[in-house]
Every structure is written in C-alpha cells, then in structure tokens.
Amino acid sequence: MRKFMLGIRPFLAALSRLSLYIAGTGIVVMTFIVGWQVFARYVLNDSPSWSEPLSLHLMLWFIMLGAAVGVRESVHLGLDIVRYAMPRSIQRLMDLVSLGLVAFFGAAMVYYGVQLSAGTWGATIPVLGWPGGVDFFPLIVGGAMIALFGLERFIDIALDLEPAADTEVLEAA
Question: Transmembrane ranges (predicted)?
Fold first, then answer.
C-alpha cells in the first residue's frame, strides 16, 4: 500500500494543481462577467440577463474545487487547539476520525449530488438554456475530489507517511 500511495502522489498533486488553476481562472472570469454586468447596467442601461446565473455557476465551481484542494493541502479552516493539547497518539486518532468523516462527507456529496442532478435534469435554467441538473455538477466533482483527497490524507496518516502537501499550492494559498 505504501508503494501504491507514493506512486499515485504525482497524479493527485497534478489533479490538485489543475483544480487550483481552474478555480483561479473561474474567479477571474466571474470577475470580468460581473464587471461587464455593472458596466452594462449603469453605462449602457442594458444589463445582460445571463451574467448573474453564469457568475453563480462559476462560483460554485471555484468554491468546490478550492475546497477540495484545501482538504489535500490541509489549508482549510480548523480549530486545532484541543488537538494540540492531546498526546501524539490521540492527535493521530483525532486526525483519522476527522479525515474519515471528510471522506465520507465527500462521498455523500457525490451521492446526493447525482440524485439532485437527475431529479432536476428535466428543468431548464431559463436564461442559459441548460438542463437544471448541470447546477449540481460542481457538487458532484468537488465531492468526489474531497473524498479522494480526504482518503489520501487518511491513508498517509494511517501508514505514517509524510503529508503530500504541494509546496506550489501552499505558496499560492
């Protein structure tokens, strides 16, 4: 298992980095869309109807991808004061329980996201003309990545491997 985990780390690091770049691009594109909406509303007096739903959709993507990267790189919010007060063995147990719950939560996001997507597929997002189920794709993809990265960190701790933190991602955060 140790060799397998060390073997897939480059793939998971590349996936994490790609997710971070896609999320960053989404923020920039959303900023331009919202900027165009403001310009069109106040200068041209003709606000585009597609800008708000598209901006919200992009926001879902960069939030979910960013959250997944945060799980892998352990840069998400946390209250570690109790954890640091415990002996090393209890800290390890707390980390395993926490990461197990994160992986489970990610898998639940995928499961329920697929159900929500299937249930709303027949509806249409009025302005964009997309099936309603498309709105849940970020939840599904983000949940899968949160589960994958949570499981990776869980196994790393269980096998006493060094964390797989990507220094490029940590510097960007």
Answer: 20-39, 54-72, 93-114, 134-151
